[in-house]
Amino acid sequence: MWLQVFVWNLGSSLFVYGLASLLCFIQLQNHKYGRWYFLPILLMGVINPLTVGAVTSAIIAAIYSTAASQMPMLYAMLWGFGITLIGVGFGFLPFLAGL
Q1: Which DSSP letter does residue 49 get?
Q2: Does residue 96 have a pLDDT over 80?
Q3: pLDDT of the residue at 18
């Protein structure tokens, strides 16, 4: 059950961060150092689901298992997309830069 949520989270995160890194590369390709800024963006698209996404997927699966409930594939997709959207949303919050 956690694997379904994890795979959807990983896929949607790679899609979102892949588009962002592609846009960054296209816009900054003539800049001396800016052309390499797409690499940290793409790396965050992989690291975030492998760490936070895996733990969150396991917690969601544990809640469903404790409730003795089956998770339909649509719910796994929605949970995976939701975890990605929350992660992207936290990336836009300005209070993280001040911590």
Answers
A1: I
A2: no
A3: 93
